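Today's session is about reading a structure prediction critically. Students often jump straight to the picture, but the first step is always the sequence itself: look for stretches that repeat, for charged clusters, for runs of hydrophobic residues. Only then move on to the predicted structure, which in these notes is written as discrete structure tokens rather than atom positions. Here is the chain we will use throughout the hour.
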Amino acid sequence: MLTVSRAMQGLGAAMIMSVNTSIAKLVFPRRHLGKGVGINATVVALSAVSGPSIAAGILSLADWPWLFAINIPVGILTFLMGWRFLPDNPTHIEGRRFNIGDAMLIVAVLTLCSALFSDLN
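Below is the predicted structure for this chain, in token form.
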């Protein structure tokens, strides 16, 4: 259960990290895009630095399942705030579509890179 929970947490983090710059591009005007990306990078860095201390604080007060349970109210709050404050997704504009060919190309490249790096170890 712990392994599956951690894998799901990692998958969710990877999905969020892959769209951070795109969200900054939607939220900030063009002239402030650098500021938006900088704020995003600062939040990511502060999260990485403070995460172990927060986890240690949670573990000093509760058992390990609370490391995952604490994400439920945080996730719900984040979802509601995103729903309320983030702009609509422009990919729903008429004429824009998901490009299957490009997606397959990136999957192939990442698979090859993964195979290469696994052989190096």
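Discussion point for the tutorial: The radius of gyration is 18 Å.
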